[in-house]
Amino acid sequence: MSRLIVYDDTLPVSEAVRSLTGLEHYADLIHRKQRLAERVAQLAANTRGALFTHMRNRADLRALRERLRQEEQIDRVLYWPASLFPSDLDEAGVMLNKLRYADQFYLFGPDPGGACSLADMDVALFQTFCARGLADGDPAFLADRRGVIFTPLENIGQFLDLSDLTACTQLLTRNFDVRFFNGITHNEYEVVKSSSDRDKMRREHDYYGLLPPQMQPFFVQPYDFQEQGERASYRMERLLIPDLAIQWIHQALAPSDLEPLLARVFRFIDLRARKSVPPAQWQAEVEEKYVAKLDERIAAFKRLPLFERVEALLVNATDYTGLDAIVARYHQLYAQLSARRKPGDLVIGHGDLCFSNMLYDKHTQLLRLIDPRGATSEADLYADPYYDVAKLSHSVLGRYDFINQGLFDLRLESGLTLSLTLPIEPDAQVAELFEAYLTRSGFDLTVTRLYEASLFLSMIPLHADVAEKPLGFILNAAAILDWVEQRAAAR
InterPro entries from the entry (predicted)? Predict the structure, then answer.
């Protein structure tokens, strides 16, 4: 016999959560590069004797009731409101497997027996619940039967009620994307970042203390640096504010929200301390950022086993003769557009000014930056002024965060040509606003986007753990180079 997990995605998203995330359905919330519905489906797939169905609307409810009448092998149902999600997935998985031995009906969740609970029952009771609790909209159906038919359990799996803004924000602020050598732990008040790369941890920690006073308020302050054995760590205040990447991929920011955001980001850019350097030093910094690093990363990617597979696709399913042709095109445009820049100052840079390193509350317009490149001396702070804005552009215009979260498709079109498809197209209003801020701060959009293309190409070997992602970065970089070439020719 089987237990059917009914994932109910018909519940309306609370207004506060919709405002924060732009969501129409809780199931579409992206957590650690997966939609919540996909995570619950994976839990079901890993549970012996469990089936999974995603109920999206009233038609699905009617089809579900008919299915239960027909499929006699289903004898139990676990009703799972999509607004509930476990903060401890491992514990939730253990709970699902233990339910196989249940001889009672159970309620559990953050408020077992409340208006929104997980409920485990037999098919007959679930059919009654469908008719009265779901179809007729009786929110008290489960609560009225608590202690009579249902036995309430403790909150196994530490389920969060995502209809509550605080709980939803807690989940989103756990959405850390760390590399294999890093670790993130947190409690209600603090985040602890640790790594086996002890020098990197020290640089990130010391960076804040080296900043001039006018730049420090933009950052979340690190403290309590420690070295323990092979690892080092530091602490930061935990702000219950989701990073901008999460808000961006959920399309929670309207164009009108972008104006105050860019005003604050470019205030940081404009306030960066400057340092005059000899032309040769300036040129060396620019060449290192946009030429040497790119060439080193491409060479590193070619040493990986994945390269041959990606190269074969580029040669046989695109208009390019391989990765080298795309890189050569970049170098050609770099040489052509370098004349637009004259030797100048270096500035104190963040070093990775993308949306995932910005915490932003669009209601209060609070902006805080995290995870800078780091520094152990004042000299380490300075970089080319364009580097931060190129990083910013690859989130605003380049849709980096969608590719990084796996929200893209690689398709073979007619003629067996490979194409990259992303959930959104660049918004003309957003692009116009971004260019206005760039111009106001003294930056050239064409040069910015050229450097942005180099960032996408430079990231290829760093994301080779997901086979499709390097190809997504390459095709996106090629599209940006198309734009740069057309823009340069028009001027």
Answer: Aminoglycoside_PTrfase, Kinase-like_dom_sf
* Separation CA 219–CA 221 (nearest Å): 6
Please list the pLDDT of the chain residue by residue as tens digits (491 residues).
Answer: 899 999 999 989 999 898 888 889 999 999 888 899 999 999 999 999 999 999 999 899 999 999 999 998 999 999 999 999 998 888 889 989 988 888 899 998 887 666 678 999 999 999 999 988 787 667 778 888 888 888 888 777 689 999 998 888 888 876 555 544 467 887 888 999 999 999 999 999 999 999 999 999 999 999 999 999 999 999 999 998 889 999 999 988 888 899 999 999 999 999 999 999 999 999 999 999 999 999 999 999 999 999 999 999 999 999 999 999 999 999 999 999 998 999 999 999 999 999 999 999 998 999 999 999 999 999 999 999 999 999 999 999 999 999 999 999 999 888 889 999 998 887 888 999 999 999 999 999 999 999 999 999 999 999 999 999 999 999 999 999 999 999 999 87
Question: At a CB cut-off of 8 Å and minimum separation 6, what does 336 contact?
Answer: 488
CB 251 within 8 A of CB 424: yes
Per-residue CA distances from 19 to 64, 165, 176, 250, 257 (Å): 31, 10, 22, 11, 11
Residue 92 vs residues 43, 46, 158, 272: alpha-carbon distances, Å: 8, 11, 8, 47
Q: What φ, ψ does residue 347 adopt, rounded to 5°?
A: -130, 160
Residue 392 has φ and ψ, to the nearest 5°, of -65, -45
Q: Looking at 46-82, list the stretches that DSSP marks H as alpha helix, in order from N- to C-terminal side.
A: 58-70
Q: Distances from the Cα of 166 to the Cαs of 17, 187, 239, in angstroms? A: 9, 14, 11
How far is residue 239's CA from residue 358's CA, in Å, rounded to a whole number?
11
**Residue the block writes with tokens 């690892």:** 231
Torsion of CA 52, 56, 62, 63, to 10 degrees: -50
Angle between helices 385-396 and 255-271 (to 10 degrees): 170
3-class SS at 28? helix
Kind plus residue range of the DSSP H or E element containing 268: helix 255-271
Residue ranges and CATH numbers for the domains of the chain are 2-171 (3.90.550.10), 174-237 (3.30.200), 244-490 (3.90.1200.10)
Query: Token match 């302050």: residue?
Result: 221
Which two tokens mark 26? 């809780």
What distance in Å separates the CA atoms of residue 416 and residue 414, rounded to the nearest whole number? 5
Please state whether beta strands 84-86 and 50-55 pair in parallel, antiparallel, or not at all (unpaired): unpaired
CB of 469 within 8 A of CB of 406? yes
